[in-house]
Design a protein that fits this description.
heterotrimer; A mainly alpha; B alpha/beta; C mainly alpha; A: mainly alpha; two-stranded antiparallel ribbon; globular; C: mainly alpha; about 75% helix
Chain lengths: ~300, ~500, ~350
């Protein structure tokens, strides 16, 4: 019984965590290169919407994923052009992107599916059972009986960690965020490097959005992302700008979120709204009490201009 | 003589109406240390930025190794074998030494074998230069002199043949200067061309083979170092060197002590000891000069005196008032004033008007407010008085303060402190980066303050300035204060103490 | 001492040209947003002109429309002031939404406790509680920034969600209406409501308070020692420290005052318009407020204008939705475009100056 509860908790916790770590990993790259993008929510929403549209009309969730990634990247290209090349304030542009995406997706959704938004059924990602591994007790169904997209999301973390830590690209990205003038004099193109990171961030947001509409909710509603972009923003700090840190922070968070369903199922008598609040409160508490000594990238939020 | 490694002919560059560089021709040779001297604004940095590709000339051309050289960016310059050691090091502080070498240098792969190769190459280079280097340390853990060495090696690893060093000694302690000079001599031996930018005649005389002096964008002197005296070089830099001296007025040395500092100790931002038992007495109506090379605790001393840096130990008295733990506000209200070392960073409020910048202290006085509401008219009248009294040239005081020229900004910052008629004035490099006219005006103002009875602590890295104004001279070295000595003490002795000598 | 003569013509000339400059950027931003929105409508096969006519008519076409536009403007104006105040002080308060909600929730919670007091005192205390609650909610983020180095952008956003969930919990649980039918509270007691001037519109007696508040905030920023110190701190915190200003305290107070304003907006909306609290009590006023404040270049008096513009847009968009079947959320998109254009214009201006 207890094992069952834990299994269910981890299973849905992991599912809830995947879009968070995808988005937060993207944001880590952006922030490590010196750009703070608070438009994650909007980029996820764009990804979710585009993923839904493409998935709906093509009946192929992979095309949906592709469309989601493209939509997120497109929006982040706008963000990057304004903040990196025109040197506009990153916080303000990020806030603008969120408004823009909410309005645009809402408008188009109602245009296509009507003001009421008839319930959609999508050809979504279905769980793929990996032979043998899935039969393991506990972890089997948690890790190896999930939508294919989740397996891909798993792969992102070690890859991201490797790139940041062990490659010239990662070194260059980190240098842009810590001391952009040093990166510039070392012959790197700081602006292009930052744009690349922001585009990657947008693509990850788009993938996370497509995950939400195609592998999690299996539908689209206005405001589907429900603040996950902002949670991801906090998770980056929580995970100390490290992919693995973010991964575990996201899982912790996802499980806290999943608790709510478990408790509802168990009928504990605690109002479920408390559990809805729990993730945000936990994040806030973690930020207050567990920040010791880790600093944000030195030039986070500052536009780079030569001279 | 062999053909020059880098030859520049008839370079000119203007910014608006200002001729920053006017028809300058120079030759830099391999195996030679070539010093470029001049005051602030003489055109040194413009020249270097042209060579390094950060700027492009209006007229003139360059040749590198016999071929046309017209860099459009530092990248071009680096690729052509140039390297620059900036005054502010271009190292990522959170990276290790090795990571800084790898950055943007794909020659070294980031595999295990690649890293081992890189390490070996670095160590080979270090052996050749007769220095030691631990590549696993992080930059922010290193002393400034070591960081500079990392910077030089980083450049050499990119196969630089010509090194440009921009005021490399400004940030160094005297012993580190010696080590740097030793390294530069080795590099010269091995055939590198070195451009050494400075405004200090003595060190140029020590290290260089050839000297070029710039003044107002023109070459005013070219010498073989061994065949010229420091006086001749100094004359080429500023024809009337005596401009700053001879203004000192007699001080009342019998006056009683106003400010008493007893064994002040304070830590710097990295936890090291920045002030090491600093004690001094400042009398009414005197200027106590604090000489020293930048980075020996000057900033920390000013901050500690103004209550912006916590004292680890020690006591501070203003007459009978123990102000060791007093807030900045309490100090300001009781007669402390401070001219900051960097007006942009620490003095001015960009975006606020000239009125507002002038009135930052005054507006809190009861005269200018009732229950927190400001009397705008009185503030404006008062600010105009300040601007006129201190000869800040401006057409319109409602414009943002950044529209003022550097000298006028500085006069505003100085005036705003002096209007308060302080008892104690802590002035840190009060004339840094302003022209001669403004410098003279500011010096006059400081001497007038002294005549009024203020006690002035003049912390300056310019020995000339100290000698022009101070009644007694102390030396700050590695957080320790030596002296004070009489103003008649010879420059040689003070200079030696600035380098750490115990005389 | 010198007598100073103020050259009036020079100053007038300047104020005229600066007025033009000040209007140019927001005008451009609004133009860009409108054009893109129109283009989007056209691309999606809507008839652009009738849709826009419906929008304008819905915002200003009748006494009713105008009254509702003004009603919509009030919370935008006050939260706009809240955002502008924080931004002027150099702190990024993205949390006006949460502060507004928390202010309204506190009002609902304390209202029954005040029942024994005379009506005017009750109303006054109610406002005070909302203002205090908003201030505390923002002050929490301020404290986290100064004591725990938590960026206020992140903390205020998280606090928005927490406030929203608190409201959701309250209206489903402890404060649910007596009838237990809908997730909403019972209406405020009649003596705690603001008089309605023009029934059946919801134009209430509190609308004049919003512009008065704008004037007050303007004076606070421009004419007081606190406002002076606040602007100095935002311009250069290091220089402010050398000038003996208590930078941390100033930033904390700015955050708290900003939150207090947002809390006040919540109380006004509650006692003037909705009377009840429910989950969608605020249709994102606190987020729209960012656009309102930025479009006004953070000038409190200009916020009166930009809030009215957005109030009209949002109100008109509802009519457009009814009559031309265009989703009203298109207004969000326009707000986003305004914010982006203003941000870029600001950056380019800075570039020209330096």
């Amino acid at each position: 019984m207890l094992l069952n509860v834990i299994e269910n908790l981890l299973r849905s916790g992991l599912k809830l965590a995947a879009p968070l770590w995808l988005t937060a990993t993207g944001e880590t790259f952006a922030e490590r290169s010196g750009v703070i993008n608070i438009g994650l929510e909007g980029m996820m929403l764009a990804g979710a919407f585009a993923g839904m549209i493409a998935g709906y009309y093509s009946a192929n969730p992979w095309l949906g994923l592709l469309a989601g990634v493209a939509a997120g990247a497109l929006l982040s290209a706008l963000f990057g052009a304004l903040t990196i090349y025109a040197a506009a304030d990153q916080i303000i542009v990020g806030a603008g992107i969120n408004l823009l995406a909410a309005g645009l997706t809402g408008f188009l959704f109602r245009r296509i599916f009507g003001v009421t938004g008839a319930a959609l059924t999508l050809a979504a990602f279905t769980p793929v059972k990996i032979p043998w591994l899935a039969d393991m007790p506990l972890l089997g169904s948690v890790c190896f009986e999930q939508p294919a997209l989740l397996y891909l999301a798993f792969a992102v973390i070690p890859l991201a960690a490797f790139v940041l830590k062990r490659t010239h690209l990662g070194l260059a990205i980190r240098a842009c965020g810590e001391h952009s003038a040093a990166a510039d004099t070392a012959g790197l193109n700081v602006l292009r490097m930052r744009l690349g990171c922001v585009l990657f961030c947008g693509a990850m947001c788009g993938a996370a959005g497509a995950y939400l509409s195609l592998a999690h909710a299996n539908t689209f509603v206005e405001g589907l992302t429900a603040g996950r972009g902002f949670i991801a923003l906090a998770l980056v700090i929580f995970g100390r700008w490290q992919p693995w840190g973010i991964f575990f922070a996201a899982i912790f968070f996802g499980c806290a979120n999943a608790l709510q369903f478990q408790f509802q199922a168990l009928g504990s008598g605690i109002p479920y709204q408390i559990f809805l609040m729990l993730p945000y409160v936990l994040t806030l508490l973690v930020l207050i009490f567990a920040r010791g000594g880790v600093k944000a990238p030195g030039e986070l939020g500052k536009a780079y201009r030569r001279g | 003589m062999p053909p020059a490694f880098l030859e520049i002919s008839h370079l000119s560059k203007s910014f608006g109406n200002k001729r920053a560089l006017d028809n300058v021709s120079l030759q830099f040779h391999a195996g030679e240390i070539h010093a470029v001297l001049g005051e602030n604004g003489a055109g040194k940095s413009t020249l270097m930025n042209l060579i390094y590709g950060l700027l492009q000339p209006d007229r003139g051309a360059m040749q590198l190794g016999g071929r046309v050289f017209a860099p459009r960016s530092p990248r071009d310059a680096i690729r052509s074998g140039l390297g620059m050691v900036h005054q502010h090091f271009m190292l990522v502080p959170t990276f290790t030494v090795l990571e800084n070498f790898l950055l943007g240098n794909p020659r070294f792969r980031m595999t295990h074998a690649g890293l081992r190769n890189a390490e070996q190459e670095v160590q080979r280079l270090c052996a050749r230069l007769r220095i030691k280097l631990d590549t696993a340390r992080r930059i922010h853990e290193l002393a400034v002199g070591q960081q500079q060495r990392v910077e030089i090696i980083k450049i050499l690893l990119r196969a630089a043949r010509l090194l440009i060093l921009d005021e490399p000694t400004a940030v160094l302690a005297p012993q580190e200067v010696e080590e740097l000079f030793a390294l530069l001599r080795v590099l010269r031996e091995q055939g590198h061309a070195i451009i050494f930018i400075s405004h200090k005649v003595e060190e140029v005389k020590t290290i260089s083979d050839r000297v070029t002096v710039l003044r107002a964008g023109k070459v005013t002197g070219e010498f073989e170092t061994h065949a010229v005296t420091t006086a001749e070089i100094a004359h080429a830099i500023t024809p009337n060197v005596s401009a700053l001296t001879s203004k000192r007025v007699a001080s009342a040395s019998q006056q009683k002590a106003l400010l008493n500092a007893e064994a002040l100790c304070a830590r710097n931002s990295f936890g090291g000891l920045a002030l090491d038992h600093v004690s001094f007495t400042l009398r009414r109506g005197e200027v106590l000069g604090v000489a020293g090379v930048d980075g020996n605790g000057q900033a920390e001393l000013a901050e500690a005196l103004m209550g912006l840096r916590k004292l680890a130990s020690g006591k501070l008295w203003l007459e009978d008032w123990d102000c060791t733990a007093a807030t900045t506000l309490a100090r300001v209200q009781n007669g402390f004033a401070h001219i900051p070392a960097d007006r942009r960073e620490m003095g001015l409020f960009p975006g606020l008007t000239i009125y507002e910048n002038a009135a930052i202290f005054a507006q809190r006085e009861p005269e200018f407010q009732t229950h927190g509401w400001l009397h705008m008219k009185r503030i404006k009248v008062w600010s105009k008085r300040l601007v006129q009294a201190f000869e800040v040239r401006t057409d319109d005081m409602a414009l943002p303060v950044e529209t003022l020229s550097g000298g006028n900004q500085q006069k505003l910052v100085v005036g705003r402190e002096l209007m308060r008629q302080p008892k104690v004035l802590v002035a840190v490099n009060p004339t840094r980066g302003v022209d001669l006219a403004a410098t003279q005006k500011i010096h006059e103002l400081l001497l007038a303050e002294k005549a009024r009875g203020a006690a002035i602590l003049l912390i300056s890295t310019e020995l000339e300035e100290i000698y022009a104004l101070a009644d007694r001279i102390a030396v700050l070295f590695k957080g320790q204060l030596r002296g004070p000595f009489a103003a008649s003490e010879s420059r040689e002795k003070i200079g030696a103490r600035m380098l750490g000598a115990e005389i | 001492m010198h007598r100073i003569t103020v050259k009036v013509p020079n100053q007038m000339k300047r104020s005229f040209t600066t007025t033009l400059q000040v209007l140019a950027t927001p005008g451009l931003a609004f133009g860009v947003a409108t054009m893109i929105a129109a283009l989007l409508l056209w691309l999606n096969g809507y008839e652009v002109l009738p849709a826009l006519v419906a929008l304008v008519h819905g915002a200003f076409g009748s006494t009713y429309a105008i009254a509702e536009t003004v009603v919509r403007t009030v919370p935008l104006l006050i939260t706009g002031l809240a955002v502008a105040f924080a931004f002027r002080a150099g702190v990024w308060n993205i949390g006006a939404e949460g502060q507004l909600l928390f202010g309204a929730l506190t009002a609902i919670a304390v209202a029954p406790m005040l029942a024994a007091l005379p009506p005017y005192l009750r109303f006054f205390l109610l406002l005070l509680c909302s203002v205090g609650a908003g201030g505390l909610w923002a002050g929490l983020a301020g404290w986290m920034k100064l004591q725990r180095q938590v960026p206020e952008v992140v903390s205020t956003i998280l606090l928005n969600f927490i406030a929203l969930e608190l409201v959701r919990y309250a209206v489903h649980g402890p404060f649910m209406e007596a009838a237990q039918q809908f997730p909403q509270t019972d209406p405020l007691a009649p003596e705690l409501r603001l008089t309605r001037w023009l029934p059946p519109t919801r134009l209430h007696a509190g609308v004049w308070l919003a512009p008065a508040l704008a004037l007050l905030v303007h004076l606070l920023i421009r004419r007081t020692v606190f406002g002076f110190n606040l602007r100095a701190t935002a311009a250069n915190a290091t220089a402010a420290r050398f000038a003996a200003l208590h930078v941390a305290r100033i930033q904390l107070w700015s955050m708290a005052i900003s939150g207090a304003l947002a809390g006040f907006a919540g109380a006004m909306e509650l006692s003037g318009v909705t009377y009840r609290l429910y989950q969608n009590f605020s249709p994102g006023y606190g987020y729209t407020a960012i656009a309102v404040a930025l479009m006004a270049r953070l000038q409190p008096l200009a916020i009166i204008g930009t809030a009215l513009l957005f109030g009209a847009l949002e109100n008109g968009a509802l009519a457009m939705q009814r009559q031309a079947n265009v989703s009203a959320v298109i207004v969000n998109m326009m707000q986003g475009l305004v914010v982006l254009t203003i941000a870029v214009a600001g950056a380019l201006e800075l570039k020209r100056k330096t």
